[in-house]
Amino acid sequence: MTSVSGFRPTRGFTGRPRRGRPDRLPPGQYDTGSDWPTLTAEVTPHLVPEKWTMTVDGLVETSTSWTWREIHALPGSTYFGDIHCVTTWSKLDTTFAGVSVDTLLAAAQPRSEAAYVLAHSTTGYTTNLPLDDVTGGRAWVVWEYDGRPLPIEHGGPVRLLVPHLYFWKSAKWVTRLEVMARDRPGFWEQNGYHDRGDPWLEQRYQGDP
Amino acid sequence: MSTSGLETGSPGAGSPGAGSPGAGIPETSWTTAVVAEVERIEDRLVRLRLDPEGWTPGLPGQHAIVRLRAEDGYTAQRSYSIASDPDDPLVELMVECLPGGEVSGFLHDEVRLGDVLELRGPIGGWFTWTGDVTAVAVGGGTGVVPLVAMQRYAARLGLGHRLHVVAVGRTLAELPYSHEFLEAGAFVATTRENLGSRVAAPPYPAELESLVADVERAYVCGSVGFASYATRLLGEVGVRTDLVRVEQFGATG
Asked: Across the interface, do A191 and B228 touch by the CB < 8 Å criterion?
């Protein structure tokens, strides 16, 4: 039988048991359970919170920066839910705490022509996102996972969190959101990955819908 | 197995990436590939040579995605580094069978000649080497797979003097392509058996010094533990952190 995809089943492949909550998994993803695989492209940086700042600039009325202490003084916000990596693992029921990106943008005030952001990490890593994907309670800057400080290998002490998109969009060691009128591909996006990265549409690579 | 490094990566400061989309990294789509060769090595490795229906050659160091499809439409896909020279009409993968590995287990235990797999790629523009810079490439276990592609590419184009390969495995038998590395003059270190007069041990800084003297870039590929060890070692022998490109994988099946 040929499926809607046009591909036939692979001879002899049954796959792992469809246990759990398959309705919660985007297509092509599996539940990694308690594991949290670590994948990065470069040497893990040692980031000193006292020297770190978070900046929102670009097409905004007021370029604004926060120190570690200042960002912690903002109203806190928590995400509870699932995360999805393009390498096909999903992790269910995660809890992250930090500050909503809405709070940061409210201070900086994007101009009317603003439509995209480029997230920058301390390491030079970048990833691009539509502004609509980081507003309306969809995105956070987080420093806590499961009630504890975010581990360095998972982007600690601070990372971006955009859980409704593939996890490479959730830039580790984030330090800056550059607000832009036009989209500009980030690091993985220049290297063959999708500009938006919706896991439910399987927007994994350039060329996907 | 080499899963491509992709949660959120982090190029060194000022890293340019690999150019704009469409420039060096063409869009890819799913195709099918016929299994043209299967070689099972030791208990845990399987070398596959796949004949894809339509494939645009890429760069050494890239990876391919294998997707398996069950009768009910369920799919599972994993990314594996490509071992073959981009010039090779077949796509060669060396897959390590992981405990409970849904895809790797199938490839190791079930696949046979003539089977058809879904394949996509080549993908990735970061962990690639074109010979434009002199580089050291350090791989551990199946992390050596992208390095063998680089080495084959270098041999074909006469660029061997620009690529210094360090291949690390427990034993020669368990290290993929160990004999090919030795024949090409790569530095091979075994950690659980002696190799000639060299007592079993991970590479020492002194063994790397001559290999990194003139490098403009370093590649590290292996498990999380190996990648951490190798990047520290490179730092000890003076390779700047921002020159190091890492591809590390965990047990993702």
From this structure: no
